[in-house]
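Troubleshooting: if your tokenizer reports a length mismatch, compare your output against this known-good record of 143 residues.
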Amino acid sequence: MRVEPRVRCAMATDAEILEELRKIREAVTPKPPPPPPKGVWAEFVDFIGKAGVLGLAIGFIMGTYVGKVVSALVQDLIMPIPGAFLPGGNWQKAVVSIPIDQGMNFAVGDFVSVIIDFLIVAMVVFFIAKYAEKAMQKASLKK
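Known-good structure output:
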């Protein structure tokens, strides 16, 4: 049986096949991680970049001030409304006293005020998070 020269040129040799397999292995082998940064400043910058600490810090600061704005809204605009309908006026100063020994005083009005404040702040944060999630979904759909 005789092989045509044209067919013999098209066949790959074992060395060529092995070379292609080496190239494939190099392409699929994971690269080693980059060396760790040297120096405290470089480590700090690397940490900020990887951990998203900057975004977390901005979110924390914004959350603090949004909380202050909402607390002011609750204390200055919402809480006076129930006080206008109560005979004593300032229901936030309500105290329950138990006459044991020298007396035990429980600041019930302040506690209820803080609970209402928390619920309103939580509701505002919920709506902000819901809006942000919708905005992020719209942005991801545009891409």
